Every structure is written in structure tokens, then in C-alpha cells.
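Bumping my old thread because nobody answered last time. Still need a sequence for this structure:
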């Protein structure tokens, strides 16, 4: 069946003699009149960046995970050398058949202590265990105060040595901190430096985690069990699990390829779409080491997002070319026609995606900023590979004859269906251009938005579960963390508040009283297990200095009594210059509510007690750093959404030059954002470093569907066509691919829900939800909004005009 051109379609040109090579825009002429040069250029870039990609490394950095410019973190970094708490590993060695007072157990503990002491990156002066000389006991004897290492040089494993060790442990004050109250396990506390051995070399978390696992494998037995917690172990487990992440990526890519092949029935065009999307990924991975970047566990998802977005845009280009070739147009002309029609929509969509990523730069967390730069590079690569290279390659290869005939047959069927009965799905969607259905759709959307907004108000910032939210609750790490929580009052979740004084005045009675008052107020919070400070140490030593009488359990008022106490106090509660006191706050967990309560209590105390010379500062410890991160994330969440929507609105207005078109494109995105936050509440997912980028990414990616649909719709509406006709043409030309890519990508990323890495599973579920809801918004809410916003929306298609509907596309001027 030959195609009869109408005033809406470009002419069918079967051979190049009838085509003006100088037609089209300057950019089109430069690209398509020099196709070979473009392909050679892309091949050279791919070869160079492909080689560079082999130099890409996987890594992580503790300091990249924290908001370095936040006042709390600035305080921590300024006094980091005096604290020794921040990036800490805890290794609990458990005796499953007895207590720690066992010679074999203690010998195993010694070997583990010695091996861990020599690991790269260990901050050795602050390392603590029963075998560390810095762990001391203090007691009252008939001669006065006495003390020494918990395990001294006279230890020989004999029953007498065990009795002495038991006494030393009980007098050390480490029960509940380094030693479990049931005496069945003890901890090796391992502070880490970001620069391995202080040499400035980056700490290799994967190597460190592997070394820890080797130690675990070497010393675990029927009687010894080892439990490890800490940021370094979390990152190490995440990096080790990346093989499984890559497996899920491979499954998703294979699934997308299979579905696209099923749709096109054409190997060559399917492979070209997939190949061009993979070329963009290669370019991205090659650029990263060139500019000094690496992939970390949080940006490992970006390459697949680049591939997914490339598949979406590539399918639109391929579909347009296939339709033109099916009508008899020469493959080169078909490629140029499609380039003209969709370049503006595609470019705007990719720019919107890039902006969605780029606004993440406002978040003062280096790992998110790196993710933003990485993803923006990927979007730039897609502009070349999928908007330019793919049409040029298809202009050489075309599509298979079977695919072209299938496209022509689908067009013929659609034309006949328009005259009699449309395809059931298209007929159903077309109902939303009518007042009753449009009004109902908008009412339902308003109800969903209201319910979603109410639910989103309960969205929490930070972790909502104990342990590492990045990993499954049944993972080895979280089982180890549960052991720590159950067996140690001084948990691994430590918040450190600091009291800054003039040099030499940290141990004055007035300052110790302040610290003691702060600790007392914090102990009243339900999330606080215990506290420790120089004030608490002073009370204990004061008892010892007065024949063990508990009547003296108070901070001495005399400075002459305080000074001897300071000489016996552990190093971590004050610094060498005596201008900083540390208050250790041991928490039940690091949930958002727990951290918020502690921050608020310390801030309130500081407001009431700060003076010109003495200041209460926050915050250090792993929980203090996480609290500062939560504060930054909370502020950034709102700021990020405002910026990404402002950018998308501006780009959409530049593209459509119609405020009505902008409203039609943006309102469905806003509904999806609100419902996504409600879904996070329902699934118990908090907003944190791992999940914060998802919402911004969903907005940027989701606008693609609306841009392609509106480009076609508006071109027909501006020619005076009815909304029903314009929407039907958009469905025939781009709607099919919108449905295809929305469902395909949604199902592909939904498979991530089975990943052992929890944050990848969370991102997969959220992205699948946003892919599908943005697709539904483009197919349902867009025509419903258009009915009320565009004057043409109220004029239905007359019956006599129905037969004239053709699956035609806008000309370049319409785009």
C-alpha cells in the first residue's frame, strides 16, 4: 500500500536524487553531509576512552561521605587529632564455650590484636583492647591509688594470672565498653586514618575489608566467633558485593535488549540502539579516570542510568526512522527527517536530565557531588551517541525489510482503526481528551496527590533501621551489629560533644561542672545508653583517692585535688593542651529521631551555658557525623527539588514557548515526586546520602516522556487540529515507544529489588515506580490537562474526519 502525503507529512523520497542535501538546519547539514567523518571521530573517541576505562578504579572515602563545610564537621576536623573517634572499626571476639578468662581465648585475642595493629590505616595510638597498654585499671589500695595495664608483663595464662586479670578488668571501668557484661566477649577498638599510615595515601577499604575477613577466617573456630562493625566494613562489604550488582545490570540490559528486539523484529536496529547506549557508558567510564575520578558504591548505579536513558532516546529515534522507511522513504532521508523532528525534544530532555543531576552539586557532600558530575558527563555523552551517532548509523544500515513492512502494516492498521475502531489501548487513552474522563483523571490525581502529600510529611531523614541501612537486615554485617548492640552498653553508635576552653583550663571545676550537667541532661533522653567524660572520670578517681568511700563520688571543688585526677585520666576525654573536653554519648541506635533529640539537647544546653571563653561544640563520633549529614540532607532535599523543577520548567518553556505546555509537562512530575516520597514512608526508607539523588533523577528522567509526547501534540494543535487528533498522532508516533520504554525500564530496574545490597534494592524500587508513574502521567494526565488548558481541547474530532487520521509526524518547523 502506497502512502499518500498530506499537508502534515514530509514528502516520501525513495531515492536521493529527489532530496536536497542542503535542506534542514546548519547542524543537520554539517552532521549528515559529513557522516563518515562523524563516525570516524566517534570510533576514535571510543577507542581512546575505552582504553582509559581500563584504568578506572572502585573506591570509597570516609571524608567524601560527610558534609565537610557544615559547622559540626568543621569542628570535628579541627579537633580530629585530639579525638580519635570518627572512622572506627569494632572487632568483637566472642568465646562461644566460656568466658574471656580462658588462656586459649586470650592468646587468640592477642594474635588478632597484633595483626590488626599492623594493618595499614590504623591510628595506633588510639587503638584499644585488653592487650593494649593504654587500657588501664585504677584501684584503691591500703597504700592509696594504684593502677596499671589490664594485662601486664607478668601475665602467663596461669589460674593466678586469670584471677588478677579478672580483678583488673573489674577495676578498669571497661565492662560494657571493651568487655561485655557477661564476660563472653571483648572488643578490639580500631580507629582509622583516611591516609593509610599517615602517609597521605588513600585508605583502601576493599583491601582493609579483605584483610579483616582473612583474619576472621583464620581465627574463627567452634569456640571463637568474630563480629566486625564500622564504616570501613560497610564500604568493604558494598564493594565486595558489586559483582552481584553488575550481574543485575547485565540482566537488566539483556531484558531491555530482548524487549526492544521483540518490538522491532530487527536485529540491526536493536543492536545499534543498544550499542550506542553502551558507547555512551564507555565514554563515561573513560572520562572518569582521565579527570581523576573513581566509581564508589554510591555512583556505581550511574552507568546503568545512562544506558537506560540512552535506550529510551534511542528507541524514539529508531521508531521514527523505521516508520519513515516503512512508507518508502530512503533510509538517509528518513534519518534526517527524524533528526529534524526529535532533535529539539531529545536535546531538551537530555539537558533536563543533566540539570536534574547537576543540581545535586548544591549538596555539600562530596560523594553526591561526584555522582552529579559523573551523571552529567553521561548525559553529555548521550547527546553525541544517541541523538547524533545513532541516526547517522541508521542512515547507513536502515532497518530490515520485515521491520519496515511491520511498521507500514501497523500504520495501515491504525489508519483503518481510526475509520472504524481504534486499538483498544489507544481508544481508552483517547478518552482522556474528553471533559468527563479528563475531569475524573484530574480529580483522582488530586486525591492521590493529597494523600501522598499527607504521607510524605512523615518522611524521615536518615536511617530508620538499626545497623547499616545500605545492607540487608539479615546480612553478616547487621547480624554483627545486632551482637554489639545486645552485648555492649557502650554501643558502636557514638556521639561526641566537645567543650572548648582557653588553653590549660579544661580541668577547672567550673568547666567540669558544665560537662557533668550536659551529660546528666543527655542521660535523660530515651535514646542514650550512657555517657563518659572527664567529669565522670573525676568522680570515680575522687572516690579512689578517699579510701573508696562513695560519699566522695563528686567532682572535687579544690583545683589541687582535680590536678592529680587529670594525670590519671584516659587520653580520649581531654587533649594535651587542655583546651578541649570530650563528652562521649553512647546511643541505642543511629536512627534519625535519636540523633535529632541529641542534637537538640546539646544545642539547647549550649544556648544556656555558652560564654565568651567557653563554648559547647558539636559533633564528632560516627553518630555525630551522621547527625550533621542528616541536617545537610534535610535542607538539601527541599532546595534540590526547587532547583530541579525550576530548571525543568525553564527548559520546557524554551522548548514549547507555551506556559500551558509547561504546566502539562510538570504537574505529572510533581505528582510522581509526592507519591515517591509517600512510597518511601510506606517502605520505611529514609532520605539519606544513598537515596537523596533518586527523587531528582526521577524528575529529570521522567520529563523525557512528556517532552516527546508534547512535541508532537503541540505541532498539530498549532495547525488547528483537535486535541483528540493531535493526541492520537502523538500516541502513534511516540506513545508506543513511551509505553515500551516505561514498562521495560521499570521492570528492568525492579529486578534490583532482589539485590543483596539494600540501597540498590531501594533505588531499584523507587526508580521503577517513577519510570512507570511518569509514563502514566504522560499518557493520562497530559491529555487531561491539555483538555482544560488548550482551546482546541474542547473540539472533538468530527466523525467524518475520523477516516482522515493518519499516523503522521510534525515537520521540522513544528519541532
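Sorry it took so long. Here it is:
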Amino acid at each position: 500500500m502506497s502512502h499518500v502525503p498530506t499537508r502534515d507529512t514530509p514528502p516520501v523520497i525513495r531515492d536521493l536524487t529527489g532530496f536536497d542535501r542542503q535542506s534542514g538546519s546548519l547542524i543537520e547539514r554539517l552532521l549528515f553531509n559529513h557522516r563518515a567523518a562523524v563516525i570516524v571521530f566517534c570510533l576514535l573517541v571510543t577507542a581512546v576512552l575505552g582504553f582509559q576505562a581500563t584504568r578506572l578504579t572502585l573506591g570509597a572515602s570516609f571524608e567524601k561521605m560527610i558534609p565537610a563545610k557544615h559547622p559540626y564537621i568543621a569542628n570535628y576536623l579541627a579537633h580530629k587529632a585530639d579525638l580519635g573517634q570518627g572512622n572506627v572499626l569494632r572487632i568483637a571476639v566472642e568465646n562461644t564455650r566460656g568466658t574471656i578468662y580462658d588462656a586459649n581465648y586470650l592468646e587468640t585475642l592477642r594474635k588478632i590484636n597484633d595483626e590488626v595493629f599492623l594493618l595499614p590505616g590504623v591510628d595506633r595510638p588510639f587503638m584499644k583492647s585488653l592487650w593494649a597498654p593504654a587500657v588501664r585499671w585504677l584501684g584503691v589500695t591500703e597504700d592509696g591509688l594504684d593502677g596499671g595495664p589490664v594485662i601486664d608483663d607478668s601475665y602467663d595464662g596461669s589460674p593466678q594470672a586469670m584471677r588478677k586479670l579478672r580483678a583488673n578488668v573489674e577495676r578498669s571501668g571497661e565492662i560494657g565498653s571493651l568487655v561485655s557484661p557477661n564476660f563472653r566477649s571483648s572488643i578490639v577498638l580500631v580507629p582509622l586514618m583516611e591516609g593509610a599510615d599517615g602517609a597521605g595515601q588513600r585508605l583502601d577499604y576493599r583491601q582493609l575489608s579483605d584483610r579483616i575477613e582473612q583474619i576472621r577466617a583464620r581465627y574463627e573456630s567452634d569456640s571463637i566467633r568474630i563480629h566486625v562493625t564500622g564504616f570501613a566494613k560497610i564500604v568493604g562489604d558494598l564493594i565486595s558485593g558489586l559483582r552481584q550488582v553488575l550481574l543485575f545490570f547485565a540482566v537488566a540490559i539483556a531484558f531491555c535488549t530482548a524487549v526492544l528486539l521483540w518490538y522491532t523484529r530487527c536485529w540491526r536496529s536493536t543492536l545499534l540502539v543498544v550499542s550506542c547506549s553502551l558507547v555512551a557508558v564507555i565514554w563515561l567510564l573513560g572520562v572518569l579516570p582521565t579527570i581523576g575520578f573513581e566509581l564508589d558504591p554510591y555512583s556505581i548505579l550511574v552507568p546503568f542510568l545512562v544506558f537506560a536513558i540512552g535506550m529510551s532516546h534511542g528507541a524514539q529515534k529508531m521508531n521514527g526512522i523505521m516508520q519513515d522507511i516503512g512508507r518508502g522513504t530512503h533510509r538517509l532521508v528518513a534519518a534526517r527527517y527524524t533528526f529534524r523532528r526529535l532533535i529539539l525534544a531529545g536535546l531538551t530532555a537530555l539537558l533536563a536530565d543533566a540539570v536534574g543531576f547537576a543540581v545535586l552539586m548544591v549538596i555539600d557532600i562530596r560523594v553526591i557531588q561526584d555522582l552529579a558530575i559523573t551523571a552529567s558527563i553521561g548525559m553529555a555523552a548521550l547527546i553525541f551517541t544517541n541523538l547524533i551517532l545513532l541516526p547517522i548509523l541508521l542512515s547507513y544500515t536502515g532497518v530490515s525489510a520485515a521491520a519496515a513492512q511491520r511498521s507500514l502494516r501497523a500504520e495501515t492498521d491504525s489508519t483503518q482503526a481510526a475509520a472504524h475502531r481504534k486499538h483498544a489501548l489507544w481508544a481508552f487513552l483517547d478518552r482522556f481528551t474528553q471533559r468527563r474522563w479528563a475531569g475524573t483523571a484530574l480529580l483522582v490525581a488530586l486525591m492521590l496527590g493529597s494523600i501522598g502529600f499527607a504521607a510524605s510529611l512523615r518522611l524521615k531523614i536518615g536511617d530508620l533501621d538499626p545497623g547499616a541501612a545500605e545492607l540487608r537486615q539479615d546480612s553478616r554485617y547487621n547480624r554483627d551489629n545486632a551482637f554489639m548492640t545486645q552485648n555492649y552498653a557502650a554501643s558502636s553508635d557514638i556521639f561526641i560533644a566537645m567543650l572548648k576552653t582557653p588553653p590549660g583550663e579544661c580541668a577547672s571545676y567550673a568547666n567540669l561542672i558544665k560537662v557533668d550537667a550536659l551529660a546528666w541532661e543527655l542521660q535523660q533522653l530515651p535514646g542514650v545508653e550512657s555517657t563518659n567524660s572527664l567529669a565522670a572520670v573525676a568522680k570515680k578517681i575522687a572516690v579512689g583517692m578517699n579510701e573508696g568511700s562513695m560519699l566522695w563520688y563528686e567532682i572535687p571543688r579544690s583545683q589541687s585535688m582535680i590536678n592529680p585526677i587529670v594525670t590519671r585520666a584516659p587520653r580520649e576525654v581531654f587533649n594535651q593542651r587542655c583546651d578541649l573536653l570530650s563528652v562521649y554519648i553512647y546511643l541505642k541506635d543511629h536512627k534519625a529521631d535519636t540523633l535529632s533529640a541529641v542534637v537538640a539537647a546539646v544545642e539547647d544546653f549550649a544556648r544556656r551555658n555558652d560564654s565568651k571563653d567557653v563554648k559547647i561544640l558539636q559533633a564528632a563520633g560516627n553518630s555525630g557525623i551522621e547527625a550533621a549529614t542528616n541536617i545537610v540532607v534535610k535542607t538539601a532535599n527541599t532546595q534540590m527539588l526547587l532547583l530541579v523543577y525550576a530548571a525543568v520548567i525553564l527548559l520546557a518553556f524554551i522548548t514549547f514557548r507555551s506556559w500551558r505546555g509547561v504546566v502539562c509537562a510538570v504537574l505529572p512530575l510533581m505528582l510522581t515526586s509526592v507519591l515517591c516520597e509517600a512510597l518511601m514512608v510506606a517502605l520505611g526508607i529514609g532520605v539519606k546520602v544513598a537515596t537523596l539523588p533518586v527523587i531528582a533523577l526521577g524528575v529529570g528522567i521522567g520529563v523525557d516522556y512528556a517532552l516527546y509526547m508534547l512535541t508532537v501534540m503541540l505541532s498539530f494543535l498549532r495547525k488547528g487540529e483537535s486535541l483528540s487528533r493531535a493526541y492520537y498522532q502523538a500516541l502513534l508516533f511516540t506513545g508506543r515507544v513511551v509505553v515500551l520504554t516505561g514498562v521495560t525500564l521499570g521492570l528492568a530496574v525492579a529486578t534490583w529489588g532482589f539485590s543483596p545490597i539494600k540501597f540498590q534494592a531501594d533505588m531499584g524500587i523507587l526508580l521503577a515506580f517513577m519510570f512507570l508513574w511518569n509514563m502514566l502521567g504522560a499518557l493520562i494526565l497530559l491529555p487531561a490537562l491539555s483538555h482544560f488548558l488548550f482551546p482546541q481541547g474542547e473540539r472533538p474530532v468530527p466523525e467524518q474526519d475520523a477516516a482522515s487520521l493518519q499516523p503522521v509526524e510534525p515537520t521540522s518547523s513544528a519541532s
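The CA atoms of residues 508 and 560 lie 10 Å apart. Let me know if any region looks off to you.
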